[in-house]
# Entry
Amino acid sequence: MSTLSVSERDPALAHLDCELPAGEGWTYELERGAVLRIVDLHGNQAVDTLFFDAHDYANRYSAVDTLREQGSAYLGVGSRLLALDGEPLVSIIADTCGRHDTLGGACSQESNVVRYGAHTRHMHACRNTFLAQALRWGRGLDKRDLSANVNFFMNVPLTPDGGLRFADGISAPGRCVELAAERDTLVLISNCPQLNNPCNGYDPTPVQLLVWSQA
Amino acid sequence: MQTDATILDFVLPAGGSLSRVCHRASALTLTDLQGGANVCALLYRAEDPLERYCMPDTLKAQHLARLTAGVALYSDMGRVLASIVRDSCGWHDTITGHTTPALLAARWGARSYQQARNDWRQSARELLLVELAKHGLGRRDLVANVNFFTKVAIADDGELTYEMGNSSAGATVTLRFELDTLLILAATPHPLDPATEWSPRPVGVRIAPARPPAEDDPVRGACPENERGFAASEEALR
# Structure
């Protein structure tokens, strides 16, 4: 899944167009048929994203079902992001990056301590953003609902001997990915604040989010 | 590993499931009795099941895409729930999930209790959810599981392929618990198992006392990340 596919969708026709700074979150209900474009404005940013069936939050994105059914460890054009019920929530319909991770998870203060040491305990982290977004959204959404996420634009290569590493990003300024909602889908984004990981060049940057209400 | 005073020793029948709190200073040994077994496993911290096995944190802390001896299983709160202290297989999958009712029906055909009595076909999803429900847990608690005895090979381009013959009769894996852990098991085929017949396998389940990890424990010392993960587990005991 490394095919690149450019979208011709016109930003002038988008009904939402906003910039999301690093370290901030965004919660949005995509109606079936809507398209979300995420633009990596400055390159090598990680955009940690959760997906839920908008009418049944327990039926959420499942990375392992998605990877197994597509037979590949990375996401790209043509990937259908499956919920626990085995049916797609969203599909990747355009992509100028080439590869997106869904095994690296979202950073948290607790995992930062494990990975980088006790001095990172109080640094900002994606799972704090997810929790703050869930609390603001309400409707019963809480930590229990934080499971597998996608890391758009992040490069986490696996190796045939069972290794995994966090590599320099393969994204670049202006690269983007487009998702079409296959059903009404709640999207939570944390624009990753990580300062300790080479994936984003130790420099978290803003991303642009656009939504077209009809495909 | 101490061998005295076995806490539990039985055969989990093919297609069977189990939920049980396994305490710190005990170890679980699973034995693939016939070869070709797959055991789906989920782990939750017994005193607060909101804290649970976290595949991404486990893999990224140790820079791994597979589980084997020397690997710690992390919770989503930065603590080590359990460690794989012995393994005759070399590769246990944790990135390709488990069977669902739809998948089972499509691949192998459904068989109801009415048709087959206790040889009915239950997917791992159904078994795991029923075991979770016994502890007040449900779909929201369902996260990526471990597939003991199964290897799904990863090619350079990311292609995933089920590997035949990863586990032979007599293969064992031993998991030592570093915190009191609610363990959920289901002995059901892996969803990518190419067998044309639905053929779950029985597994030996033995739980025995085990020494808590010493300062020079090989799993603790495998990487600086594990030193910190073990320290976090031990801090929670104080």
About this structure: Chain B has one domain: 8-237. The mean pLDDT of chain B is 97. Chain B touches chain A through 49 residues (CB under 8 Å).
